[in-house]
Design a protein that fits this description.
Length: 541
């Protein structure tokens, strides 16, 4: 086993400075006056004060106890605290309410002692003690064994991270994961011309949307119901940045769905109407039916049929249309039912999950079986189209920690890389899948949105290259490219090989049935004569 990687003692400071440099060089004009002054002042601090400030920024909450600040690389904590207070990065013993102090900085015994609550208070829970206190400013700092520290402008870290990563889910830990070798990213050309954010409004909106989402999901069910309107009304308007506006629409859809579940149908319709992302039109059509607004229901279904957002919405629209026609007593031109190739086995499912049980069963019959689900075909695609995924397209890559380009699942992905994609197909036609092994060996472990390395093993790839007909792989790649977002799921659970044969097997346990995205793939398998079966398993105790 290799020795663990030791990070430099002040690694976090070096990483934080990368965020600062990026903000100063790429987005100086979008920083507000306070943020620009903060960065300028931070650069003048001594190293220990910088370290302590970054430590505080990366801890949860904006309030701290001085006795909990113990860092070996910051031996002069008191000096650093005084420096940070002098330049107004922190406040020491600032105005804080009794309840806030007790809730966030004191233990239960400390609450009893500091506020002289008496012996009877020991039988009460901490929250009960907090609620006993007056919600007025705390004055008795001399009774504390520590200093209370408040971080000033704690939102600076969120701004810097959003500017660097252009999202709200990556943070400074991303640097650590890379340094430890847990995340490895492709070396691609970073955009030199296109900035991800064009206006300050886009930055503010993305941060605001994420705060609203986190605030809502952290609530319990009862609190969500009580505060749903408040969270919806705090959502900002569209800002013109496709990524930010999509996040906004996803949040609206999520909250509007909860309105629908609460039977606030009219209000839910109004909110769903503010988005174009599925399932907006589907949910509105269903609610119009509930309200008896059949004309509006029909119009929405027709809109979905005429201009579906994606294949999922088209299939939903077809089902809704068939239900509507049946209700009206009209005849339906039924699609030819899916002719599924299937078989049934009786297996003991008490010791293992159903897919593994079928894998073992097929292995007993002489097949070499891999439980890879979506990762098999996706993995082949990711290896084959590696040059397209990581092509130097301006605006696609804006930092060194992206596992895919910003436009990966937009129509622009193919449009901007059409010539590269065509050349990949030409290369496959000329030389087959053998080049995938070279990519596999060269790129092993590097992040790719389609390659899941734990299941994309060398032996599986060797089987695929030597046995699966090239024409089958080519047509499957074409199907994937037709809708990368939706076609990357629904593939069969198992891929099996025996001599010169291969066989896809979708496994269904007792009571399970085929999902729409699985039927989609089986339809394509039938059309192109791809060998597959659906295995229905009965539990044999």
């Amino acid at each position: 086993m290799p020795d663990p990687i030791a990070l430099p003692q002040r690694y976090y400071l070096a990483n934080f400075k990368k965020l600062c440099e990026h903000a100063n060089t790429q987005y100086a004009d979008l920083l507000n006056e306070q943020e620009a002054a903060w960065l300028k002042s931070f650069a003048t601090l001594d190293v220990e004060s910088q370290c302590l400030l970054v430590r505080l920024l990366t801890r949860k909450g904006g309030w701290f106890r001085s006795d909990k600040l113990v860092y070996s690389e910051i031996p002069h904590i008191e000096d650093a605290l005084n420096t940070l207070q002098n330049v107004q990065f922190i406040q020491i013993n600032p105005s804080i309410s009794n309840q806030h102090l007790a809730q966030h900085l004191l233990t239960k015994p400390e609450i009893i002692k500091v506020f002289d609550l008496g012996v009877g208070a020991k039988a009460m829970r901490k929250q009960e003690l907090v609620e006993l206190l007056e919600d007025t400013p705390f004055r008795a700092f001399k009774r504390l064994t520590f200093q209370v520290i408040q971080l000033v402008n704690e939102m600076i870290l969120a701004v810097l991270q959003v500017l660097f990563f252009a999202n709200t889910y990556q943070d400074l830990s991303q640097f650590v994961l890379q340094d430890l070798g847990l995340n490895r990213f492709e070396h691609y050309s970073l955009s030199k011309v296109t900035r991800f954010f064009r206006t300050r409004e886009e930055i503010n909106h993305l941060i605001s949307i994420d705060k609203i989402r986190k605030s809502y999901v952290e609530l319990d069910r009862a609190s969500q119901a009580a505060q749903l309107d408040d969270h919806l009304n705090r959502i900002p308007a569209n800002c013109g940045n496709d990524y930010v506006d999509e996040k906004r629409q996803k949040l609206i859809n999520h909250l509007a769905r909860d309105l629908e579940r609460q039977k606030s149908v009219t209000q839910a319709i109004e909110w769903f109407a503010k988005t174009t992302l599925p399932p907006s039109r589907e949910r509105r059509a269903r609610m119009y039916h509930t309200l008896g607004e059949y004309t509006l229901e029909k119009k929405l279904i027709n809109d979905m049929l005429l201009s579906p957002i994606d294949i999922n919405e088209k299939e939903v629209a077809l089902r809704l249309e068939h239900k509507r026609l049946r209700r009206e007593g009209q005849s339906i031109i039924s699609r030819q039912p899916l002719d599924v190739k299937e078989f049934t086995v009786d297996l003991d499912l008490t010791q293992t999950k159903v897919e593994i049980a079928v894998q073992h069963h097929l292995q007993d019959l002489g097949w070499r079986v891999y439980y890879a689900e979506n990762s098999f075909l996706n993995g082949l695609f990711g290896l084959a189209f590696w040059p397209a995924i990581f092509a130097s397209i301006d605006g696609a890559f804006i930092n060194a920690f992206q596992r895919m380009p910003k436009d990966m699942f937009s129509p622009l992905f193919i449009e901007k890389r059409r010539s590269i994609i065509e050349s990949i197909f030409d290369e496959l036609k000329a030389h087959g899948l053998s080049s995938l092994m070279a990519t596999f060996n060269e790129k092993q472990g590097i992040e790719n949105p389609f390659v899941y390395w734990p299941t994309m093993t060398k032996s599986l790839l060797e089987q695929a290259i030597s046995i699966i007909p090239l024409k089958h792989v080519m047509v499957l790649f074409d199907i994937l490219l037709s809708d990368l977002r939706n076609m990357k799921t629904g593939m069969p659970d198992l891929i099996a090989f025996k001599e010169n044969e291969y066989w896809w097997v979708e496994v269904k346990g007792p009571g399970d049935k085929l999902q729409d995205n699985q039927k989609r793939w089986l339809h394509h398998f039938n059309r192109h004569q791809i060998p597959y079966s659906v295995c229905y398993v009965n539990h044999n105790k």
